[in-house]
Amino acid sequence: MNQAGLLCLVTAVMLAGGVRAAAPITVTQKGLQFSVEDLNVSKGQVVVFVNDDRTAHNITVTGEGLALNGGLQQPGAEFKVPFAKPGTYQVSCGIHPKMKLSVTVK
Ligand SMILES: [Cu+2]
Fold first, then answer.
1. How far is the CA of 51 from the centre of ligand 1 (A)?
2. Ligand 1 center to residue 81 CA distance, Å?
3. Partner of 79 for a Cys bridge, out of 26, 50, 51, 70, CB 3.0 to 4.6 A?
4. Do residues 9 and 73 make contact, with C-beta atoms less than 8 angstroms apart?
5. Number of domains in the chain
6. pTM (two decimals)
7. C-alpha of residue 86 to centroid of ligand 1, in Å
8. Cβ distance 39 to 24 under 8 Å?
9. Which CATH number does the domain housing residue 39 bear?
10. How far is ligand 1, taken at its centre, from the CA of residue 24, in Å?
């Protein structure tokens, strides 16, 4: 096998081996709660927060040095959060304090 062939093979193995981040996970907000209370994701995985309520929400994400505020999220809107760093994160709603979700990134 020549060098170009070897490079091709290495690339194919990397792609097949899940070097790419896992597919996005969707979490919905409905009835003033998140669809799950605890979530495990892989490093680099994206969580898509969908507002399935008739009222606006405000996603906040804190943990591992991250402090993210998604702003006002209207009904039907999506908010995507990539979790790049392993650790534990708290997701909540700035408008509805009872809405809480814990995300563990491995
Ligand atoms: Cu809310």
1. 9
2. 16
3. 70
4. no
5. 1
6. 0.81
7. 26
8. no
9. 2.60.40.420
10. 22
